[in-house]
């Protein structure tokens, strides 16, 4: 889910947000299933804090903008420079797109959004559509072109490892869970997760 | 406390069976309440003093003579023959370990799948159950999705979205074989919202969403993204899903034309709105080897599924339905946090 939508629930959802989601999917997979030099605490903070979509939270937007943990030279995926580069390029591109959108909305669109929140959604769309349609499409296409270029460049790389199958990584429990009550070992945390939120019957068919 | 217990019981019953609705009788000392659950909510009667009033007896007399579908049985669910089950197991390996089977009807065709198992959530909602199934007529393995779709003007049925995407040649999506509302409108549509409208028309903050029983059959089956065999395959699947998703916007001028409520709508594109690790599947050489469908050639490495939350975009580039977006987001948050489960 796009950082902008997490930050403010009055933001209308557009196709640029759909595009950003692809980055979060990749980051999520790399955090949970790929071996890297990421510390367990970093994984945990990405998993529990950055990916947390509680309304109004700035964490996701901050992560996107400041590139904490990824753009830093320290982040490595051993034997897989392509994947690391892909993640960092996607993030850089999306961060600048995010900044542009925020700047634009703080100068002109904010008022319009607030008004459209109370008017009928269809008439509002038509109205703003006449003025913004070509711009929205060209912005979207530009962003898509950049993202797909990152993907195709990375996939064209020759030094992808061939035997690095999904490898579930240890994720520490959220910080407040350990603070509040002694939570025990990681295994206890996993067990509680399994018992409360993962019905095994459903687990097999996540389609 | 009692409410929690009742909800848990209702969830267990509605989850472990194919049911359209169910009744409960709650008896406390000298009064009783009748309770009716369906996919949009629950109706609870005023207390019935059964020593003085006859409503409770009337209910039992009527329930006793009622047809199964009035009691909440799903009339589109049947039992397969032993021979059919045996045949299904040879084609669909996922069914081998199952012990109890049902047939489900979609567009007049019968499919064999396993009986549902209870899930832990609340009885209301879309209740999507996706399971591997056996197509009796074509003798092939398919994915059957049984759900209660949201009946609102601006939300389109997933099958309509797929057929529109297929028409525009959007790559990297699964092939949609059959779809449609199933069963009779009287029973396979939620009714709680009607009761609310009739008796509490002024309670605007009770927002009940009407649901309609719906099934869709997909002919392309992929591997979940998190089970990737190598990272390149995983990156390729995401890239493929990205490409398919954006084709709808890239080719100009693509107008999405959906007929809903007998009115044709034209849109500038479709937002998927639920791009998550669970909705991107790997579809590479291993997957396409099992199935010789020519549609496979339009899939290059991965595909994007679950278009049932998608929204058409008006020409301004914004989603037409903002008012429902918030609930969707809250649900999606849970999906992301606990990646192995589906909340629908």
Describe the structure.
The complex is a heterodimer of chains A (207) and B (344). With 207 residues, chain A is mostly helical. In chain A, 66% of the residues lie in helices and 0% in strands. Chain A contains nine helices and no strands. Chain A has helices spanning 3-7, 15-33, 40-50, 59-66, 81-116, 121-156, 175-180, 186-197, 200-203. The longest helix of chain A is centred in the middle third of the chain and has 36 residues, at 81-116. The radius of gyration of chain A is 20 Å and the shape is flat. With 344 residues, chain B is of the alpha+beta class. Chain B folds into three domains: 2-73 and 326-343, no CATH class; 77-218, no CATH class; 223-286 and 296-312, no CATH class. Chain B is built from nine helices and 18 strands. In chain B, the strands form five sheets. Chain B has a seven-stranded antiparallel beta sheet. In chain B, strands 1, 2, 3 and 4 form a four-stranded antiparallel beta sheet that branches. A three-stranded antiparallel beta sheet of chain B has the order 12-16-17. In chain B, β1 (22-28) and β2 (31-38) form a beta hairpin. Chain B is globular and about 70 Å long. Mean pLDDT of chain B is 81; it is low at 317-344. Classes of the chains: A mainly alpha (207), B alpha+beta (344).
Between the first and last Cα atoms of chain B, what is the distance in angstroms? 25 Å
> What integer is the average pLDDT of chain B?
81
| Count of folded domains of chain B | 3
**Biggest interface and residues each:** A-B, 69 and 70 residues
Run of helices and strands of chain B: HEEEEHHEHEEEEHEHEEHEEEEHEEH
What do the pLDDT scores of chain A average to? 68
Main sheet: strands, sense, barrel of chain A: none
> What value does the Rg of chain B take, in angstroms?
22 Å
Number of helices of chain B: 9
Q: Total number of helical segments of chain A?
A: 9
- What is the gyration radius of chain A calculated from CA atoms? 20 Å
Q: Which stretches of chain B are low in confidence, meaning pLDDT under 50 for 5 or more residues running?
A: 317-344
What is the quaternary state of this protein? heterodimer
Secondary-structure class of chain B: alpha+beta
């Amino acid at each position: 889910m796009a950082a902008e939508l997490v930050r403010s629930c009055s933001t209308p959802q557009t196709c640029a947000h759909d595009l950003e989601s692809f980055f979060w999917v990749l980051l999520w997979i790399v955090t949970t299933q790929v071996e890297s030099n990421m510390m367990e605490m970093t994984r945990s903070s990405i998993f529990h804090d950055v990916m947390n979509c509680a309304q109004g939270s700035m964490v996701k937007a901050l992560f996107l903008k400041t590139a904490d943990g990824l753009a830093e030279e320290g982040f490595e995926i051993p034997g897989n420079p392509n994947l690391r580069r892909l993640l960092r390029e996607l993030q850089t591109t999306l961060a600048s797109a995010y900044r542009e959108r925020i700047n634009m909305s703080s100068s002109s669109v904010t008022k319009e959004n607030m008004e459209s929140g109370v008017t009928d959604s269809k008439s509002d769309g038509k109205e703003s559509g006449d003025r913004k349609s070509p711009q929205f499409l060209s912005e979207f296409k530009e962003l898509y072109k950049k993202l797909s270029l990152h993907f195709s460049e990375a996939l064209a790389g020759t030094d992808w490892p061939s035997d690095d199958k999904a490898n579930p990584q240890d994720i520490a429990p959220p910080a407040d869970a350990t603070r509040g009550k002694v939570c025990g070992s990681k295994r206890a945390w996993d067990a509680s997760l399994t018992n409360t939120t993962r019905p095994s019957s459903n687990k097999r068919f996540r389609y | 406390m009692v409410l929690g217990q009742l909800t848990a019981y209702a969830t267990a019953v509605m989850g472990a069976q194919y049911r359209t609705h169910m009744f409960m009788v709650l008896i406390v000392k000298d009064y009783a309440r009748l309770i009716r659950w369906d996919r949009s909510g629950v109706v609870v009667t005023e207390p019935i003093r059964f020593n003085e009033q006859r409503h409770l007896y009337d209910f039992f007399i009527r329930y006793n003579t009622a047809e199964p579908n009035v009691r909440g049985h799903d009339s589109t669910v049947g039992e397969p023959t032993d021979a059919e089950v045996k045949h299904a197991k040879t084609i669909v390996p996922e069914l081998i370990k199952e012990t109890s089977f049902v047939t489900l009807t979609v567009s007049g065709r019968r499919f064999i799948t396993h009986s549902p198992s209870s899930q832990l959530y609340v009885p209301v909602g879309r209740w999507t159950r996706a399971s591997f199934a056996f197509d009796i007529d074509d003798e092939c393995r398919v994915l059957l999705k049984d759900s209660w779709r949201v009946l609102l003007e601006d939300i389109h049925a997933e099958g309509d979205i797929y057929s529109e995407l297929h028409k525009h040649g959007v790559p990297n999506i699964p092939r949609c074989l059959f779809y449609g509302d199933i069963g009779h409108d009287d029973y396979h549509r939620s009714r709680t919202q009607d009761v609310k409208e009739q008796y509490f028309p002024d309670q605007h903050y009770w927002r009940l969403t009407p649901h309609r029983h719906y099934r869709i059959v997909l002919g392309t089956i992929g591997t979940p993204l998190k089970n990737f065999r190598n990272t390149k395959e995983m990156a390729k699947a995401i890239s493929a899903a990205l490409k398919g998703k954006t084709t709808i916007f890239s080719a100009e001028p693509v107008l999405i034309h959906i007929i809903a409520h007998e009115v044709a709508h034209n849109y500038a594109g479709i937002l998927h709105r639920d791009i998550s690790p669970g909705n991107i599947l790997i579809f590479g050489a291993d997957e396409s080897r099992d199935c010789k469908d020519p549609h496979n050639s339009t899939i290059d490495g991965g595909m994007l599924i679950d278009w049932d939350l998608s929204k058409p975009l008006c020409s301004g580039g914004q989603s037409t339905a903002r008012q429902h977006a918030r609930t969707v987001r809250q649900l999606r948050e849970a999906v992301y946090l606990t990646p192995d489960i589906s909340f629908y």
